[in-house]
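Hi team,

Filling in the usual template for the complex we talked about on Friday. All components are listed, including any nucleic acid strands or ligand strings, so the model treats them as one assembly.

SUBMITTER: L.P.
PURPOSE: interface mapping
COMPONENTS: three
RESIDUES: 700
SEQUENCES:
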Amino acid sequence: METIENKILEKIKSTFRVDGVVQRERRIWITIESERLVKICQWLKSEGFVHLSAISVTDWPEEDCYEITYHLWSYNEKILLTVKTKIDRDNPLIDSVVPIWSNNAQIHERELHELFGVKFHGNPDLSQLFLEDWEGPPPFRKDFDWREYLQKEVFDPKNLREQGYYDKTK
Amino acid sequence: MAVKRMVKRSKKATVMRKLIKSIWVFNWFNSCGFAELVPVVGSRWDMERFGMIITGTPRHADVLFIAGYQTLKSVKRAQLIYQQMAEPRVVLALGACTMTGGVYWDSYNTIKRLEDYLPVTMYIPGCPPRPEAVFEACDKIFTHVKELQ
Amino acid sequence: MIKQNNTIENLFTSTPDIDGYDFYFGPTHPGSGNFGVKLKLHGERIESAKADPGYLHRGFEKLMEYRIPIQNSMLSDRLCVLEPLGWNLVHAEAVDELMGNDVPERAKYIRVIMAELSRIQSHIIWYGVFSIATGFDTGFKIAFGYRDYVLDLFEMITGGRVYPAGYICPGGVRRDLPEGTEEKILKVLDKINEMIDFEEKGNPVLEARTKGIGILKLEDAIRLGATGPVLRASGMRSDVRIEEPYEVYDRFDFDIPVRLEGDAYARYYLGIDEMIESIKIIKQALKQLPGGDYITPSLKKIKLAKKLPEGEVYVRNEVARGEAAIYMVSNGTEKPYRTKVRGPDFLHMIPVLEFLLKGAHIADIPAIYWSLNVCPADMDR
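RESULT (copied from the run log):
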């Protein structure tokens, strides 16, 4: 029996060459390369995926890449489609989707630039959002351990209560 | 005939007894304090019957309530507010996050010990503390002022 | 790593011109909460607005990577202090779907009752704060007086007035409803009905201050990413509870109120309509409440941490402010590898607010700002 999710996935696969899977009712996940992102997203928006729910970045240090995911929702078909791409970890650079979903995408990308260090080419404003005068590395990367940073800078080993933080590190 | 004063008090004690009769409060609440300090103003635990009101500016206030965790960005503003208050002034810190860091003890952006940044007079424990605890703290201020020598 | 920068001049980032001036509607203003907006004015009209967030940033998403799911469910009620049980439910659903848990029927009904009570409590706060910001002080006192009935109910069921200590946990709920809860809930709902009768009478000052102010058209609302009551007041009938029913919402008979004008008055009265629908849902749920377990038997003793299977999920819910979502990735260990939290206020407070404040008067700022039902903790995380 052809469900709506399978029909939409077949339509995407026949227009562009992508791998995709239907996870359950109302969830489709597809994987593409980062160069074709803007073209595919423009086609998806004209097909009814007008609402950008979130943009997120996952850090995989063993595979030496960042994985960016775009979660799109369609009000007509009531289906959530997720687009996943991978970019390089040491020099993260990708095209911005601000021309497609205007200020909604701009504020998500500004937050990810501050927390992960990803540069979005074409975003009009990538200034600091949450932090003020922060000069360290991007805080959400996997190699910036918060508990070690606090042991060095903030906690005091001579304080009786805070000595306990130094014994058990996880 | 002139009436002689029977009890000898220091100058600070006389001044404090005249000024701290009804406390005017400036609220600098972060989110967690909002949920339990606003009922203190509301109609169930009414604080106006004790003479406490909320002022709009720190220049009129006697007491600064710091309710909840502070981040590096907001503690600078709290210091600016404290500098604008007139003597005698008291700082009350509410919640577990001001004492030890609380639930966010391993966050890179919150303050773990508030006493490094502001001179705190009294801590009120709880997460968040009940409104009755706030009244007990104000009662302790009054008792302390009465017993000053 | 952090510079010391304590001067007041650094709070403004541009030099003012001769005819206009800068105005900082800042975090210590009693009408703004912990959030600042930098405005450029020309006389009494606003030319541009720039939001200044970040006073409450704790880094939630990485804090959740250091803890196991049962500890995370205690942390998840602090995501938005004005509605803790709603966010508890989103997190519990995400972990349930990753682990493949089978939640019993009684637990689902209890979860729906707690989430709807929390939505009523959040709308009462919205009503109270909106009234005092536009000059109607009686509304503030009445709202916070009636809210305490709901908080006493939470204390009886979960143990905490404001934070329920992770009551809705992965697998079900932590403990069963005590004796006599159902009668108490019905009495509290009668009291809330009294308050709604008072609210519906209206107030001429409130109407004059909010009718025709801050109009948001439908295509702008969709383009800027608004969800929840802000989108429904502009004419679109969309709600996650009917588009994608989660828990047992498909068994109830309720309506979704929609208004067409899109101004502050429409958003404000939509909150009152939604409270009436929530009361209907709770009454139907109490009638249909079945017996049985309140948590899956395999998770009853939560002493050992279980390994989460590999995979990723995206769960959407409807909290009082709009659409809330969690994206969770797991790589086979006991702790989640990455949790992304999407809150409705991140979009409402920065793009939508900057768009609505352009061209408005200074005196309309509280009406526009509080009609969007903001929660700064949800935005900063």
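MY TAKE: Chain A has a mean pLDDT of 86. DSSP finds five helices and seven strands in chain A.

Thanks, L.
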